[in-house]
Amino acid sequence: MGITKDAYLRAQDQQAEAEELAVERGILKKCYLHSDFTYQVDDDLERMYRTAAWKFKRGEISGQFANQLELTDALKAAVENAPTKCPRCEKMRDED
Asked: How many angstroms separate the first and last alpha carbons of the chain?
């Protein structure tokens, strides 16, 4: 694989890990109808950062992140880029 593809795949893995951590902390929630979508239910990033930093230091977070800054950046992006409602559910509601 080329360098660009490796970086892309690593970023995808980091994003997936960050989303799972945010779901664990209750910042994001998976849609019960569309499990591949997450949406925001809380915006307390500080609490999530503290927990993630603690887990990172204890080695409980997978090796996707080279350092804590990468982890917090991925968490911030996962939460800030998440919608406040599931887009598929919203589309279904709009069609009704």
From this structure: 46
